[in-house]
Structure formats: structure tokens, C-alpha cells
């Protein structure tokens, strides 16, 4: 169970609103408070019926947690276990500096903070820089999403069975780590613990590289004009689907994981160059081995992910 | 309507068996004869109930068409319009030489032959080389498929709404072209006429390049080990789905469209290099323009394909 008297979700878009829905669906009984930037988004989030309170003020949301009196103040208990106040930053990476600054200003000493950012080393460094020592920060990357956005697309089952990487630092309080794991575990995620830099290298390969590839595949296909798309079919549809993602969000993701992304794109160029050389040589044996190796790795992963 | 007394389908795998099902579903009343290589596949095709006859012998299938007497022999009528015998080669590209040779041996003078091969210039050249002048050949590429294979995966709705490229040569008999178009039109396909070489350049971009990219993306992601796949999620799943396709079939496709594939892979390498340079420069404006341009092209295509 999740031993927290309040979960404050900063950002009530798809992920934040889905998290609130999922927590309620799984029986979480503490307070859920949402912080949004726009009144319209807050109204949409309110209509979901899973938030106890919604506000545009981070300070107000954090105060609320200290003052409800439900389960004690938490200050005497002092641990993340009993009745902690958990804050989840579910906003685009570009807003993290501003949000962490506001959290630092409104801080309650039992605060445990986590996030949903797609890169972790830069987020953890920002938390280290901006949050006082009294706040325990544990980075998270719940790997769930959708092309749809906003609270109207919220789905309480969004996290079910998906991987969530939790990235504690070497000196992060163990109880804070357990609390954050309990949060994602409660909504059905498969937990993986990694160091921030290791996470960033891994997602550069499995998430950021596919995105860059999908985007540049659309570019390569249409470089001499879009008429060829008249004969495009399901293969093109699948491989380029994620190129429809939000450009602003992806600029942030690529920029905050710059070196690992550059490295992974370099790997992809090397592999395509290998494919091209095999084609130029007309080496059908080598070509078949490439195709078989990729099929085996892909089928193996697919099988493993379906067994989970 | 399809004015043919018989449709002989050589190859009773997914495409061939789905075509037979679709023709029956759309009310085609002529004979449908299937030619397969293995008794097991023929038994599976027979269980579908849409073939009048199934045989391992191409000669027998072609004879059957000339001798049924349904709607006359066709020889006096002499056109592809009235009661032609239409042959559809629905086998892997690697078998085409053998199949065309057998068709030439068992030829009926009113035969119109088409195929479902994914490349067209080499297939049209092979038809020119192997088929006598009395047989009219019109290349087709119905762009429908599935990762599943064999007659047990057959689906009468497989072709519905999908593009089909028909590639007549400059001197192809117009009535033969119309007959082949009537075939694919009847099963719901959206017809596009192109020259064989133009088709090959287009599919090198929209179909063969995505396949090569999906395969080499799996390779690039796993080049230092497969553990990173533990954190792979839907983005990786979508972009690499087609890497599970049959390696043998794809070796044939790549080999028969070699130059256009090499050219399109070169374009992809150039585009990834452009992405990498933008990342190295840290030019977030240029990065955003790349992402926005790709999103616009992708969303535009998706919208257009849904309106059809």
C-alpha cells in the first residue's frame, strides 16, 4: 500500500490526471491534490472526480498537505513511511526549473518529491541544485504515454504492466525510494531501478533513438516530394507513428539527453551504413543474417513483454 | 464486375488465399483454382471453401481453365474482356522464374497474367523474357499484408481500402490492364497506375526503407547487449514491428530492388546525419523545425489515408 497522507500532482495533463485516476481505482484513500497552470485544464481535471482539490498555486497545494491533520503532521514521525506528503512533478521537462523553485519555497520537511521526466541525469542534477536537503528527491520515469494529451485523455489503466524506471542517487534515503516505488507499484507498473546516467543511455537507445528515426524517416521518404505517400501502407504507418508526437516536448527530451542521443544516432548511422555496404556487395547471405538477427531479437522482446 | 471465366491463383499462402476469399465475398461467380507446392497448404486452403479446385500442377490448373466450357472457350472471343482466364502469381519473388516457365509451358492463348510481387521492374523483365507474346502480362503490387502467413491466416477483408499499384508496360494490351484493375478493384483496393521503375523507386522509399530502418534499429538498440530492452516500450514496439517479417521474403525484395534500396538507405543516412549535426550544434530552433516538419507530413498522410 502507499503510506502517504497526500499525493500532490504538479501538472494535470495526460500523465498527471491518469495517475490520479489510477490511484483512486487502486484504492488509495489519502488526499490527491492537483496543480495546473490553466483554469480550463483544472476544470477538465475536476470533471474526472478523482482530485480532492485543484489549484494553480504550488504553495497552496503543499500547505494543504501539512495542514489537513489527517494521520498527523508527519513531522514528528520524520519518515517517508508513515504519513509522508508525496509530490509528483508531471509537467514537461522545460518547466522543471520553475516548479522545483516553487517546491523549495513551499517546502514541508517531510516532502518526498518524484517526477515523470523522460531523462533523469539532468533532472536529478536540477533537484540537487534547487531543492533543500530536507526534501528527498527520487527520479522516476514511468514509461507510459499516448499521442493524446490533456486530462480529457486520462486513463486509469495507462500505467498497467508498463515499465517504470526509478533512479535513486547513491545517498538517497531508502524510505523515500520505497515510497516512490510504492506509488508506481500501486498503479500496476513494473519497477526497474537504475542509476540516472544508465537510465539516460538506455532510453536514448530504446526511446529517443526510435523517435529520431521515425522523424527522419518521414523526412527521408518525402525529401523529393510527398507524392510517394500515395503508395505508403502499414509498414510506413507503424514505423513513423511516433513522429506525430509533440515537437515541443521532444525538443526538451532530446536537449536534456544530448550526449546519449548523439551517441545513439551515431550507432544507427553505423548500422544503416553496414546494411548499405551489404546491399552494395550483393551479399545475400549477410543480408539474411542481418534480417534474421533482428527478427530474433525483436520476437524475443515481444514474447518477453507479453509474458509479463 | 470481373469478366473472367477463371482465376488461377498460383500460391495459396496468405495473399493468394485471402484473394480467393475476397473474390467469393464480392460475388465473383467464375472458377477459382489454386496452385500450391505442399499438400498441407492445399488442405488448409481447401478448408476455406472458396476454391473450386486445388492442385500442385500449374499445367493442370491452366488446362482446367481452357476445358471447362463455362462461358465458351474464350479463344474465339480473343479479348481479355469476355471470358478470359486470369492467372495471379501470389508466390515469393524467388519462385517467379520457375512459375513463369511453367505458365509458358501450359499456356492458353487468352491467358492474362498478373502477380503480387513487391518489386516490379525485375518481375516485368522476367515476364518479358519467359512468357510468349500470346500471354498478356500486367504487373500488380497489392499493398496489403500481415506478419502472419499461410492460408490459415487468410482474411477476405485484407485488401479493402489498401493501395494497389498496377504497372502496365508502354505496349501492354489495354483490355488486359482493365481486367487486372477489375480484379483488384473488386476486392476493394484503391488503384494507382505507375511505370514499373517509378513504382520501384516509390516503394523503395515508403516500404523497403522502413523495413531496413526497423531491422537496423533493432540492431543499433541491441548492439551493446539486449538488456536495454527491459525498458523498451510502445515507441520501440511500433517502430520495429515490421522487423519481425519473414527474412527470406525480404532478402528477395531487397535484392530485386537493389539500386533503389541503396539510394533510399543513403537518403536516410543523410537525414540522420542532419539530425546529429543539429544536436551537436545544440540548435533547438532547427531541431524543433525538423520535428514539426515531420509531424506535419505524417499527420497529413494519416488524415488523407483515413479520408479514403
What does it look like?
- 2 copies of one chain form a homodimer.
- Chain A has 308 residues and is α/β, with parallel strands linked by helices.
- Chain A folds into 2 domains: 4-194, NAD(P)-binding Rossmann-like Domain (Rossmann fold, 3-Layer(aba) Sandwich); 199-307, 6-phosphogluconate dehydrogenase C-terminal fold (Orthogonal Bundle).
- The first copy, chain A, has 11 helices and 9 strands.
- In chain A, strands 3-2-1-4-5-6 form a 6-stranded parallel beta sheet, with helices on both faces. A 3-stranded mixed beta sheet of chain A has the order 7-8-9, with helices on one face.
- In chain A, helix 4 (96-105) packs parallel to helix 5 and helix 7 crosses helix 10.
Which range does the strand content of chain A fall in? 5-15%
Largest interface: A-B, 91 and 91 residues
Tell me the CATH superfamily of the largest domain in chain A. NAD(P)-binding Rossmann-like Domain
Helix/sheet category of chain A: alpha/beta
Order of helices and strands of chain A: EHEHEHEHEHEEEHEHHHHH
What is the CATH C level class of the largest domain in chain A, in words?
A: Alpha Beta
On the 0-100 scale, what is the average pLDDT of chain A?
90
- Sheet having the most strands of chain A: 6 strands, parallel
Number of domains of chain A: 2
Q: Determine the oligomeric state from the structure.
A: homodimer
What is the topology, as strand order, of the major beta sheet of chain A?
3-2-1-4-5-6
Q: Tally the helices of chain A: what do you get? A: 11
Rounded radius of gyration of chain A (Å): 22 Å
CATH topology heading of the largest domain in chain A = Rossmann fold
CATH architecture term of the largest domain in chain A: 3-Layer(aba) Sandwich
Shape of chain A: elongated
